[in-house]
Write a structure and sequence with these properties.
eight-stranded antiparallel β-barrel; 143 residues; globular; mainly beta
Length: 143
């Protein structure tokens, strides 16, 4: 008798979890092109320098891949959405890659009234003289 009462509750909880797990970028498109025009390079000496460098990064959720500016593909280890109550930023999407690069993205317009674009950065930890690189990104729907 108890299992019949819990069945509707379990179905309700499962559907809520599925909706909560959706990536808000997916509402616009599942494939994205991100452009950058500079790279901040940080060396072991703790000096960080911004350099002019242009490139494209392609984010392909259906294939679970990110293609970097050199054309190399890296699988997405995981991605998740973070929303902080009271924050002026509606949603943040974090995408962690198999090569340990991390994309942090936020919508330009949370309501998608004026823009479907997302902005953020890709952070690339390195081993060697260069310990970190950061590329500011502007992402548009479509590849």
């Amino acid at each position: 008798m108890l299992k019949y009462r819990l069945a509707p509750l379990a179905a309700c909880i499962a559907s809520t979890a599925a909706v909560a797990a959706d990536n808000p970028m997916w509402k616009t498109d599942l494939k994205w092109t991100c452009r950058f025009t500079s790279v901040v390079v940080c060396e072991r000496s703790l000096d960080c320098v911004a350099e002019r460098k242009e490139g494209l990064i392609k984010l392909d959720y259906p294939e679970n891949l990110v293609t970097d500016e050199a054309g190399s593909s890296h699988s997405i280890k995981r991605h998740y959405v973070q929303t902080v109550a009271g924050s002026p930023i509606s949603d943040e999407v974090k995408v962690e890659l198999s090569n340990n690069d991390v994309l942090w993205l936020t919508p330009v317009d949370g309501a998608a009234t004026f823009s479907n674009n997302w902005i953020g950065a890709i952070v690339s930890p390195k081993a060697g003289v260069v310990v970190q690189e950061l590329r500011p990104l502007a992402c548009s729907p479509g590849l």
